[in-house]
Amino acid sequence: MYHNRKKTNFFYKAVLIAAFISASGCKEKRPETVAPQQKPVEAVQVVPANHNSSNYVGFYTTEHIISVSSVREGKIKNIPVHEGEIIHKDDVLVVMHNTDSKLLLAQAQNEFEEAHANTLQLSDLVKRSNGLDAIGALSTSAIKDRQSALAMARAKEKAAKESVKLAESHEQQSMIRAPEDGTLIKISTQPGALTGAGNEVAVLAAGKPEIDVELYDSNCVNIGEKAEIKITTGTSQSIITQGEVVRISPYFDDETKIRHARVLLKTPLPIPFNDSVLVNFIPEQVKNRVRVPLTALFYKQGLPYVWKVSEDQQHISEQRITIISLSGQDAVVTGLLPQQLVVSNGPDLLRHEDIVKIVQMDDHS
């Protein structure tokens, strides 16, 4: 009996060993882990930029530039104003020949006077007809005819009155007036010239004086920021005046990356409109500015970025920056700290948190 029990135990052990060997053989082999591929890049250490305020080119203008147009076609008779003249609202800028409009107005007025007189005559006749049919002095149909004639006369008088208004409007259109106060900066026609409806005859600068400034990035200045405007006169002497940023365009040119800002002036400048000036923005506090090469910049949804290298120099991440100005092959920017590493050159397809290998450290001193 002991011998049979020993055989049974040996049988169970053999089965367990076979099952273990079979299970081990069925396990899938795990693939070997492949290390992420490092992307070769060139890096540069950003350096501090001087803290001098940036100069921008601006152009003298006003809040509104108004194109004044003719509302009808005709020939220009005379122009009683001159370019550069101060204009007030409703001042006559251009006078057109109006012989036809005068004739039309006179004819319409005559027709209205005749219609009005006829209406008065028929109105009096209808009044005197009341009650005559009751005593047999006038038939009912005759009275109704007089009443119908009066209604027609009144309708004709109304139409003649509208014709007078139309002729008067046409007469007024022969005198092209200023829509608001301003300075006449351009006369686009001349006496004797033919003009059509909607054709420009003059250009008016209206509203407060402003400077239109070209910016490399609208975030480099803020609304309310002060500005210093420098003007060089014909005598080579400089005039400096103050202004304030009142508007910044949300749009920019895709190629030049230039936006526009408007600087409001307290007083007009002694220069022609569209003359260039030098604008120096005066921020409330000095910003931390650094220089980076232009090759380090890339744009995402119209905004400038750089690839910032991590402290271990193995990873990169997107860093939003603000361009203050361009200087040669560099850009003066904010959003980075001095001595930080950024990618100056590398593959076209870089992604956030990519693993990189710096193959060259550029000198950017």
Automatic annotation (TrEMBL):
The organism's place on the tree of life at top rank: Bacteria
A single cellular component GO annotation: efflux pump complex
Protein name: Efflux RND transporter periplasmic adaptor subunit
Gene Ontology terms, MF aspect: efflux transmembrane transporter activity
High-level lineage: Bacteria, Pseudomonadati, Pseudomonadota, Alphaproteobacteria, Acetobacterales
Similarity-based family: Belongs to the membrane fusion protein (MFP) (TC 8.A.1) family.
PANTHER family: HLYD FAMILY OF SECRETION PROTEINS (PTHR30469:SF15), MULTIDRUG RESISTANCE PROTEIN MDTA (PTHR30469)
SUPFAM superfamilies: HlyD-like secretion proteins (SSF111369)
Membrane spanning stretches: none
Record organism: Acetobacter oryzoeni
